[in-house]
Amino acid sequence: MYEGKIIKYYREKSQMTQEQLGKGICSSTHISKIERSQTEYANEIIALLSVRLGIKIENEILKLKNIKMRINSWQQSIAMQLNDEIEEINLELEQEELIQISNYVNQYKLLRIRYLLMKNLMNEAKELINEIKKIKHKLSPYEVNLFRHVQGIYHLTNHEPLLAIQVLKKINNEEYANEEYYYHLASAYHSNDLPVMAYFYADKARQYFKSINSYLRVIDSEMLMLIQIKDNEEFSETIKRFENLIQSCEICRSSDRKARVYHNLAFEYYRRKNYELAKKYYFESMKLKDTNSIPYLLSLEGYIRSSYFGELLPKGELLQYVGKGFDIASKKNDKLFINLFILLDFLILEKEQEYHQFLAEHSLPFFKKLGFAYLIKHSEKELFNYYFKRKQTRKALGMANTLINQ
C-alpha cells in the first residue's frame, strides 16, 4: 500500500512517465497497477524502481508511517500550548514532503490553521479555511468536527463570538474525542456576556485539562471561571483567587498567562470604579505583552479609559496613547479596536455630540454584528442617558425599550 503511493510521488516529482520508470524492469501497465495498489508485486521490482528513483523505499515507508504519530503529537502539543514542542514539530512537518500523499494531509492542514491563528496570521488562516471548505465533503467525521473546532477558534480570534458559538455547538463528541473545544466555547459565551454558560463549559474544560495533566490550561480554565463570578462573593475573596492565579503563572513561568490575569484583575477594579488600581494592573499587563498585538491593544484601551475616568493622566498624554493604539489597530485592520480608539479620541477631546453620533451610527451596529453583549449593553445605556439628557424623548424611549427587552 505504501510502496505504490511512494513510487508514484517520486516518479511525478522526477517528471518521469510510467513507461520511462518501468523501462527494462516492468511494463507501464504494471507500474500503473502498483501505484494504485491494484496488483501484487515482487520486492525485487520495488527495489529496482526505487534505485531508478534514487530513494530507499524502507526509509520512505518509515517516514510515511511516522506522519500520523507526529501529527497526533502536534495536536496534543497545541492543546496543551507547549510552545517549544509546537515549533519543533511544525518545522519537522513543514519539511516532510510525503505528508501530501499521506492519509492525514487534511488533518495536517486543519492543525496548520490552528498554528497560523496562534501566530495571529489571520489572512493565511482564512485562505486555508477556504481551501478546506472546497473539499469538506471528503473529510472524515473526525476531520469535520476538527474543522468546526478550528472555525470556532477563527471566529473568536476575529471577534465574532456569536458565530463561534454556532459552529462549536455543532461538534459531535462521539466523533471528536478532543474536549479542548469546551474552553473555546466557554470563551465565546464569555464574550457574549453569558456567564452561566461560560462557567459551565470552562469547568468542563478544566476537568479535561486535568485529565491530560495540562496545568497551564487548567490555569486558563480557572481564570475564565473566576471572571464569571461577578459579585457573588466578597471582593477580597476574589482578589485572593486572582493572587493565587498570578502565583501559579509565576511557578509555571508563563508570562502570557500572567498578563491575562493582570488584565482581568484590572477590569474587576475598573468596573468597581477603582481607576487607580485598574490603571496599575492594565499597565502591568501591557508590560508583558507584544506591543503590536491585539491583546496589547485590549489592555491599552483599558489603561486609557481608567486613566481618563480617574483623571490620572494629562489629556495630551492620553491622546498620544490613543494615537498609538489607533495606528496599531489600523495596521492590523482590526475594526473593533479602530472603533474603540475613535470613541476614546472623541471622549478625551470632549466632543460629546460627535462621540454619541459615532457610537449610534457606527460602533453600536458593529458591536451587534459581532455579538459583543457587554459592549452592546454599555453603549445602549450611554445612548439612553445622552438622549434623555438632551430631551430627545423618542430616541430615549426607543433605547429604553431595547434595554428592557434584553
From TrEMBL:
Pfam families: HTH_3. The keyword Chloroplast does not apply. Residues 79-138 form a coiled coil. Keywords: Coiled coil, TPR repeat. Gene3D superfamilies: 1.25.40.1000, lambda repressor-like DNA-binding domains, Tetratricopeptide repeat domain. Residues 7-61 form the HTH cro/C1-type domain. It comes from the Bacteria. This is HTH cro/C1-type domain-containing protein. It comes from Gottfriedia luciferensis.
